[in-house]
Amino acid sequence: MTKTLNVKKSKLPGAPTWAAAAIAVLLAGCSVNPVQVTPEEVAQRVQSDQAQMYKDQAPVSAPIGYSDALARALKYNLDYRLKLMESALARGLLDVSATDMLPKLVADAGYNDRNNDSGGTSIGIEDRVVSLRPSTSEQRSHYYGRATLSWNALDFGLAYFRTKQAADEVNIAEERRRKILQNIVQDVRNAYWRALGAQRLLAEADQLAKRIEDALAKSREAERAGVLPPAQGLAYQRALLDAMSLVNAKRQEMQFAKRELAALMSLPPGTQFTLVDSPMGQHAPATLDIDKLERIALENRPELREEDYKARVGVNETRKQIAALFPSLNLYGGPRYNSNDLLYNNSWTDVGVSVSMDLFRLAAIPAINRTNEARLRNDEARRLALSMAVITQVRVSAERYKLALVDQELAAESSRVDQRLASVSRAGSSNRLESELEALRTDSRALVSRFQLSTAYAATQASYARVLNSVGIDLLPDTVTGTDIPTLASAIDKSLLEGEKVVFVRTAAVQTPSRPITVRVQNLPAGVNEAAVRGAVERIVSRNDLQTSQGGDALVLTLAFERMESRATTRAQWRVTVAEPGGRGLLSQSYVSFLPNAPSESALGAFAEAATLSVISDLRRLASNSASVAGKP
User: Where is the signal peptide (predicted)?
Assistant: First the structure.
């Protein structure tokens, strides 16, 4: 018998063996090894992200205006959409926190079973004699169910302050959304006007590049044929390459702005679009009430409002810590049911109240008070430092705006001078290589000046936007009826105008109207095409943000050619007049220059361009002033 028992023990593993095996299985199940994402998963994620980034976008079917660009950025910009989602998330967390203030209603039901009876007996305390036989009051198997409605005053207080903090977190998320929106407005304004400047000049830059390439080819051919000395030919080529590099640098600098604008609008890669060609408007005078701007900035900047909400979050955190010191009062009640047949009542209702308190928590009162005071001082110091930074930004942005206006005026004057210089150079150019080089050099210089003027204008727009951003005014509507691009653009136009009126006496959004110009060219030498010369003048007029028209209300710009007697050289003059359609003269001026002995049509056209550029500032002023007078009741 003993031997049989020994054999059985050798076949079955002992308890320690089973326990070790169970522990090994448990540990193996709990261990986790790092697993890298597969290339297929990465490719699927990239494909999904690309589809989501450009989902449901309205196609670009027309030139994009400034308000259209803002509308697309407002609707499709991913950073702004992220902030909108964060605001929605904060509101959802607020709703979750608010439910914590409700009383708790807990329903509980179950089934209980055991393999023997529960129960017991009792013995006498003094004689230790068993007084009762073993008995039970519970069936081995029974069902039970209960529902308890409870309310804890301490939990309610803590939940109340947590909900207040969650509400302030919603406000913080909203202020961060406002900040992102204001930054988008500034970035779009900056990129839009730089991209528009590049769009205006890109065709001329391509034409000039073609001319320079032709001139380079001619110079290399002349060098190889021995027409030009090698040193002179290389110097000529170097001058052409310098001109090409200068133009390309300015063109690339401004062309990047178009990609930036596309990114702000979240356009799909490769989307081709053009911008509405609006003239450079007259900016508001740099008369800014700095004290007023500082006050508005301190009231409206999202960062300072965020600090206000953070301070309230800190105050509620302190109140929450103090509330945790109070006794916990718990009220509860509810119906009960138990299927145990040994019970006298299988269903009943009970209510109760309990109070508890952690007395050791009272020792934390001094630490809570010290922490609260330190938090208040920290919040105040951070808010004051931020206020000082905001005031500095307002003052710096206002100064930059004033300087940008000056830079723009200097760039405009430089551009007009370089355009006249280029026209004069082309008017006196001949077929000689040196003359062609000088014409190309002045043309490239004039084009670079126009790039610089566009850059200066974009910088002025950026400075204008920086002033608005530093003040913290909301330039876009909070809610818009309809979400299509035209509706958004219309609402943005109105909102921008109202917002800018708060800061500037006259807003940049209001373009000063100007009367159109009718060009007339008279007394040309025989054989010169009048339309060609008039077209050259009209290009100069359009290039300087004036419109040409044959309407009855247009100012009349007349250029009359006159050849002047001279012994040694050939001189001529244009008599330039500006008059009302009825004939009332507004301006009369002569422009004298030297011409080749047999001036070509292109030379006369360039001569007319130079004469027009000499009065272009007065022409812009007359067109603007007469339009203002005509617009008054």
Answer: none
| Spacing of C-alpha 326 from chain mean position | 48
Which pLDDT belongs to residue 6?
44
Q: What is the model's pLDDT at position 428? A: 66
Round to the nearest angstrom and report the end-to-end CA distance of the chain.
Answer: 129
Q: Residue 377, SS3?
A: helix
* Best-predicted range by mean pLDDT (194-208, 296-310, 461-475): 296-310
pTM for this model (two decimals): 0.73
Distance CA 542, CA 535 (A): 10
pLDDT, tens only, 558-570: 988 887 766 556 6
Q: Which CATH architecture has domain 61-111+156-506?
A: Up-down Bundle (1.20)
CATH tag, 512-624: 3.30.160
| Proportion of the chain in helix, strand, coil states, percent, rounded to 5 | 60, 15, 25
- Mean of pLDDT values over 483-506: 77
Instruction: Map out the domains of the chain as residue ranges.
Output: 61-111+156-506, 512-624
The CA–CA distances, whole Å, from 179 to 193, 473, 479, 542 equal: 22, 10, 16, 39
| Alpha carbon of residue 506 to chain centroid | 25
